[in-house]
Amino acid sequence: MRLSKTHLKTLREAPSDAVLESHKLLVRANMIRQEAAGLYMFPKLGYRTIRKVEQIVREEMDYIDCQEVYMPHVNPAELWQETGRWYAYGPELWRIKDRNGNDFILNPTCEEMFTDFVRKEWSSYKELPFSLYHIQFKYRDESRPRYGLLRTREFIMKDAYSFDATEEDLHTAYMRQYHAYEKVFTRCGLDYRIVEADNGPIGGSKSHEFSALSDWGESDILYCDECGMAATVERAECSDEAPVKEEMQPTEVVFTPGTKTIEDVCNYLKLPVEKSIKALMFTTYDTDLNPKDNVVCFVRGDRQLNMTKLVNALDIPAHYIEFADEDIMGPITGSVAGFTGPIGLKNCIVVVDSELVGTVNMCAGANKEDHHMLGVCYGRDYKGDIVTDIKELQEGDPCPHCGKPVKFRRGIEVGQIFKLGLKYSESMNATFKDENGEDHPYWMGCYGIGVSRTMQAVVEQHHDDKGIIWPLSVAPYHVIVTVIKSQDETQLNLAYDIEKKLEAMGVEVMVDDRDERPGVKFNDADLIGIPIRITVGKLAGEGKVEYKLRREDDHEVMSAEEAIAKAKALVDLEGDGRYLFKNLSEETLNAH
Ligand code: ATP
Ligand code: MG
User: What CATH fold (topology level) applies to the domain 468-574?
Assistant: First the structure.
């Protein structure tokens, strides 16, 4: 490919709204362009990298016999009504109508369509197990599209679906995808962690996220070096601290003027925060978004509420709940804003964090302006309608498995896998016949990779102040041949000769033969991050060139033949990213 014939419009300045270095660099390198909020175009170089990531995904899916198919982006609403997700998915679901007024959606994910395909095409146990995938644009009307490709409204996703006869077979399929994901992200050159995750609105029983480590990631990860526990903050279990053994005191209402926060009360009463109970109030909504229930939650004063655990406990979709206006809720539930306590509440669902069970002599709101109550004991004075773990595990808390302090990192979620169980096969009546002709629902799993998000995660981990440093496996081209003086026939001919020879060996080459100053060419080469640079300059007459790797500072002068051989050898070694498999376990490598 010759740059003199190709559009490349690199920019000095990044867009003013870009915060992440990866976002800035992809825009500056002319690899992505925003059309409207969360909608991107991919100029040539960017689209080449997208296709590289897709190809890695495709190879690893094919390796585990996952079959590639292609589904429409537009789905009839009926399928989504069958599973109830038409109502439960929330405002991210992009709904459209055809000219006759029929409802459709733009796929945010494809469980319904694949299940529908399978119930129409498959029928016998003899065809099991099998799994299917496609790489396709997905649509989510995100409330805040941001961070370049990390959170867009149209994005490229690989989604796969497995169909099995038994729960055990589902586990096998799930682990096959798990190991394939390890290979995909390893080949892309990502430093990632695999963490247990919440199933969220997709449903099912078990899930893992693959998170590319980055301080800017939106996925919060808690992990333990001691026992290997790793989970997203939404998912991470908390171990309850055992209640302090004390004799129960009678309750006592005390005057605590103007102390609306837990810290204020505890300072005022000189109590440790762990001896207090914090209240949080919510309103839930029904499918027509009319207010349904009042919910009051209680956690220990030093704990934070985990919203995901709360919506799971209430068994409602996340968008059916909102913080309540405590002033409005007061007259209904008998609470008083800032002084809400668990005793004497009415007309509400009381959710109590499991850690409060057995606690005695705690301080809580007295449901009376400017008053708190001391001596509050669980069981004697109040109980929960729902009692479960609704608190957040935080950095330094004891690991729920081994008790050692947990650590915290941020990551970019690049993939997630789910055991769906029978959720979709039962609601859509997708069954197979066993040996005796009896019908059974499929055990299903689903498996997503954000292809476009992965591309940017790679940049987030591979760049310096000059630009992107692509790993060879996903670089738009392997080699850039920079011609110092494009008007010089000798230089130009040598550059084209190198291009021809490398291309004949399967190496992808771009030649910067533009009529530009060398400084511009070098800056662009650094910015777009092509891994190998061969510079053809004044030594061209002697057949000599400079050979430099983007990831290294130094260059070497050598003959063009040597540079060609070196580039070819490096592409052979690193080109498909498999050389990094040395970091993977035998179990992963043998998973087929
Ligand atoms: P998030 O929690 O970041 O919103 P998600 O858990 O809803 O993502 P999944 O349903 O698991 O996403 O989708 C599979 C993959 O698709 C994700 O792991 C991610 O890589 C990618 N993805 C999801 N939403 C977006 C988006 N808005 N923009 C770009 N990629 C996305
Ligand atoms: Mg996810």
Answer: Rossmann fold (3.40.50)
If you ran DSSP here, which 8-state letter would residue 146 be given? Answer: B
- The 3-state DSSP class for residue 425 equals helix
Ligand 1 atom 28: the closest Cα is on which residue? 151
Q: Which two tokens stand for residue 254?
A: 């005390």
Q: Does 201 have pLDDT greater than 70?
A: no
The ligand placed nearest to the CA atom of residue 201 is 1
Percent of the chain with pLDDT over 90: 91
**Which two tokens mark 236?**
């991470």
User: In whole angstroms, what is the distance from residue 15 CA to residue 18 CA?
Assistant: 6
Instruction: Give the pLDDT score at 571.
Output: 98
Which residue ranges have their beta carbon within 6 Å of ligand 1? 109, 140, 142, 151-152, 155, 157, 413-416, 448, 450, 452-453
**Over 70: is that where the pLDDT of 50 sits?**
yes
Q: Which fold has domain 252-388?
A: YbaK protein (3.90.960)
Q: In this model, does residue 204 exceed pLDDT 80?
A: no
- Fold classification of 20-236+408-460 is BirA Bifunctional Protein; domain 2 (3.30.930)
Beta bridge partners of 441: 431
**Which residue minimizes the CA distance to atom 8 of ligand 1?**
413
Smallest-distance ligand from the CA of 219:
1
